[in-house]
């Protein structure tokens, strides 16, 4: 089949034989980090003598940053600091996946390590109990780069029947979605749902509700699991915000937000106050809502295809053409959460959650 | 190639993931009917523990502007869980949940025909209306041509295919077998299957179901069929006349009885009901496909074991009539009757509701009666 990788056609029966071998008391730990692009994920594995019971049991490590767009060859060692541990759905218990922060040779955060400043900010606003839920959209591609299952030299029928669709003519690649969901549940990632998206071969999963720093951690690991599952099937997941030009939807990462006050009775008032604050910082947020300072989102936020225009800030109840949408239920209950629809699918969730928490919760004096 | 690219993804790999334990978490797939009145949509959420009944399932919402159901500026629509089944794709403890759709103002969506059906059924509980619906469908390849038919042509004429066996007679039995088993697992009241007159056409029957259950079970059976076909990489079509010419159409014959009809001398009640139906042909035809009769106009020609759409007729063991009384019922003088008019893509909620309105509530005229709630 033209669109799947050669790797995926290796015998899985042979693989299974080996994967069934017992490993004694040894434990395989796969370290995962974000590379110099701010979007790519890297990983390598080491053996530990016994199963770590918490992330504190996992030792620091290092890697060659000159091979990941992160350092010069003459001074290339970079540090991997374990921050969040999950079960490994690929090699199974007792093995682990561990998300890491990257530090430079001088132990300062690497350029694309946005977690470091996010963690500080979340600590500062701890008492607000800020929760997030992020809706990760993505598109499946064959290894030829064309969306998976689209006709080779052409396009499927126009958008309309694909959103939440069922049937071989509407849903392309559901196997990946199903397997990714199970892998996340096994790993301990807080996946809370999935659906087929408006463009064929486009899907979405949601992670949350997560408090503070956990949002970024869980979303990055969910992304790693997605790439790894797709690799097993021999196809590719892209988080590009506008993979197909023309009358095809883009891919975003709508971010749902609430604080304790917003969730309590009368919370709508705090939601409106937060939206007021966000309206005054539109360009600052746009700058951190994709890894290219807004350049990527310019291709997506056109005002069409259920997006708001990148130029203007807008908000509305149940309005999918606005920057911020207040769900109808929230409008009725007068409490709950709001949805920021601006982040691109390839955003860094640490940067996004940090910006939202900072704008909504810090007083003017506290802001940097 | 007739099957989808998706279906050729490695299922051994898939099985490895699907075998992963999920702790206490439960996946609930919410299913609803979209703005076309025929299409089904679905999305999943994680629950923290297994729901024991449908009442344990929370309300949800979705973007109606992407399903032909609302405008983008006011797009939130509500999903209200109505019936819960086991999930034959993800297996226990995961669930499939059939939902009613409400608009932003919490009134029923235009294609939410369950709402009124439920009201009507609750009015006639004591009559214990039972239904059995015979869902016909055609298997198509991803190229839109019937599955198993030669690429640029047609198979031999109809004759050997009905209930047939053998690779030259039965096209796509795997789907039928898989669907049957999936329905049994899910708890759908599937009571039989057979190959139909046109090659690549099949039928399954759901029932006997009382009241609102008929619509619920048939819609879930349809969802399961689409999902099974998706896995195999083919498409199930409920179009009532998929191939013009000397090829059978696809219907959804609806068998109906009340407690009275099932008791001794029930035949008299059956005949009275048929008389009422005879006077209300136009109202029923309007309700028997999603296009007020336009779809059925291609199917109900008077040929290929159908009645003519313009005339009402009834008879014992007569497959060319609108209503057929099975010969055994004619002999036992009690039982049920079969309304052969509904098309394969009908909405079972309005079909069953209309039979109840005419036969039990004894309504007359072209319009349904409005009852005070």
Automatic annotation (TrEMBL), chain A:
Q: Which organism is it from?
A: Xyrichtys novacula
Q: Which domain of life is it from?
A: Eukaryota
Query: Start and end of every GS beta-grasp domain?
Result: 27-107
What GO MF annotations does this protein's record show? ATP binding; glutamine synthetase activity
Q: What Enzyme Commission number(s) does the record list for this chain?
A: 6.3.1.2
Q: Which GO terms describe its biological process?
A: glutamine biosynthetic process
Q: Tell me a GO cellular component.
A: cytoplasm
List the protein's name: Glutamine synthetase
List the keywords (alphabetical). Answer: ATP-binding, Cytoplasm, Ligase, Nucleotide-binding
Spell out the subcellular localization from the entry: Cytoplasm
UniProtKB/TrEMBL annotation, chain B:
Known EC number(s)? 6.3.1.2
Q: Where is the GS catalytic domain?
A: 113-373
Q: Which reaction does it catalyse?
A: L-glutamate + NH4(+) + ATP = L-glutamine + ADP + phosphate + H(+)
Q: Which UniProt keywords apply?
A: ATP-binding, Cytoplasm, Ligase, Magnesium, Manganese, Metal-binding, Mitochondrion, Nucleotide-binding
* Superkingdom of the source species: Eukaryota
Where in the cell? Cytoplasm; Mitochondrion
Is Cytoplasm tagged as a keyword? yes
| GO CC aspect terms | mitochondrion
GO biological process terms held by the UniProt record = glutamine biosynthetic process
- Chain ranges of the GS beta-grasp domain: 24-106
Q: Which residues form a coiled coil?
A: none
What protein name is recorded for this chain?
A: Glutamine synthetase
| Species, as recorded | Xyrichtys novacula (Pearly razorfish)
């Amino acid at each position: 089949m033209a669109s799947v990788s050669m790797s995926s056609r290796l015998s899985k029966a042979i693989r299974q034989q080996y994967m069934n071998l017992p490993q004694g008391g040894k434990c395989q730990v796969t370290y995962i980090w974000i590379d110099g692009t701010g979007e790519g994920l890297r990983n390598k594995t080491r053996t530990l003598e016994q199963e770590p019971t918490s992330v504190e049991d996992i030792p620091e490590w290092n890697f060659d940053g000159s091979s990941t767009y992160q350092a010069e060859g003459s001074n290339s060692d970079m540090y991997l600091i374990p921050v969040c541990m999950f079960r490994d759905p690929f090699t199974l218990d007792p093995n682990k996946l561990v998300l890491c922060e990257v530090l430079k040779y001088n132990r300062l955060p690497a350029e694309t390590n946005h977690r470091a400043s996010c963690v500080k900010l979340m600590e500062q606003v701890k008492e607000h109990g800020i929760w997030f839920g992020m809706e990760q959209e993505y598109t499946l591609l064959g290894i030829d780069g064309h969306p998976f299952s689209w006709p080779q030299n052409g396009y499927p029928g126009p958008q309309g029947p694909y959103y939440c669709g069922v049937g071989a003519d509407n849903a392309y690649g559901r196997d990946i979605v199903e397997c990714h969901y199970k892998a996340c549940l096994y790993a301990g990632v807080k996946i809370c749902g999935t659906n087929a998206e408006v463009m064929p071969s486009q899907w979405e999963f949601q992670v949350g509700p997560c408090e503070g720093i956990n949002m970024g951690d869980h979303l990055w690991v969910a992304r790693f699991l997605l790439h790894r599952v797709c690799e097993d099937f021999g196809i590719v997941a892209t988080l590009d915000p506008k993979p197909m030009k023309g009358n095809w939807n883009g891919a975003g990462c709508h971010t749902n937000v609430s604080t304790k006050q917003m969730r309590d009775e009368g919370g709508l008032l705090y939601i409106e106050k937060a939206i007021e604050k966000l309206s005054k910082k539109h360009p600052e947020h746009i700058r951190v809502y994709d890894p290219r300072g807004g350049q990527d989102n310019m291709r997506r936020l056109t005002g069409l295809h259920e997006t708001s225009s990148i130029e203007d800030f807008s908000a509305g109840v149940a309005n999918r053409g606005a920057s911020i949408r207040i769900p109808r239920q929230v409008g009725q209950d007068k409490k709950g959460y709001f949805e920021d629809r601006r982040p691109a699918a390839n955003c860094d969730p640490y940067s996004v959650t940090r910006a939202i928490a900072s704008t909504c919760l810090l007083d003017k004096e506290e802001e940097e | 190639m007739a099957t989808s690219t998706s279906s050729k993804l490695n299922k051994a790999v898939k099985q490895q993931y699907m075998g992963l334990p999920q702790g206490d978490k439960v996946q609930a797939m919410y299913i609803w009917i979209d703005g076309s009145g025929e299409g089904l949509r679905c999305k999943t959420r994680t629950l923290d523990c297994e729901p024991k009944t449908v009442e344990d399932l929370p309300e949800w919402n979705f973007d109606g502007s992407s399903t032909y159901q609302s405008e983008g500026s006011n797009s939130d629509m509500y999903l209200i869980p109505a019936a819960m089944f086991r999930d034959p794709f993800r297996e226990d403890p995961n669930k499939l949940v059939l939902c009613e759709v409400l608009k932003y103002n919490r009134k029923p969506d235009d294609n939410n025909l369950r709402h009124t059906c439920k009201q009507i059924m609750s009015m006639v509980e004591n009559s214990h209306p039972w239904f059995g619906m015979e869902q016909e469908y055609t298997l198509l390849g991803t190229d839109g041509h019937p599955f198993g038919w030669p690429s640029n042509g047609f198979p031999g004429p109809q004759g050997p295919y009905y209930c047939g066996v053998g690779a030259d007679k039965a096209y796509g039995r795997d789907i039928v077998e898989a669907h049957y088993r999936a329905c049994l697992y899910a708890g759908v009241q599937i009571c039989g299957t057979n190959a139909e007159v046109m090659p690549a056409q099949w039928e399954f029957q759901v029932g006997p179901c009382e009241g609102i259950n008929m619509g619920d079970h048939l819609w879930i059976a349809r969802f399961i069929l689409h999902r099974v076909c998706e896995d195999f990489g083919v498409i199930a079509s409920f179009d009532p006349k998929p191939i013009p010419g000397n090829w059978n159409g696809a219907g959804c014959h609806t068998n109906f009885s009340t407690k009275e009809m099932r008791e001794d001398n029930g035949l008299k009640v059956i005949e009275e009901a048929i008389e009422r139906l005879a006077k209300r042909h136009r109202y029923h035809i309007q309700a028997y496909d999603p296009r007020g009769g336009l779809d059925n106009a291609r199917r109900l020609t008077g040929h290929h074991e159908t009645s003519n759409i313009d005339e009402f007729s009834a008879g014992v063991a007569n497959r060319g009539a609108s209503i057929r009384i099975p010969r055994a019922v004619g002999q036992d003088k009690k039982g049920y009757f079969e309304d052969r008019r509904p098309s394969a893509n009908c909405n079972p909620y309005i079909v069953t509701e209309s039979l109840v309105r005419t036969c039990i509530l004894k309504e007359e005229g072209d319009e349904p009666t409005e009852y005070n709630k």
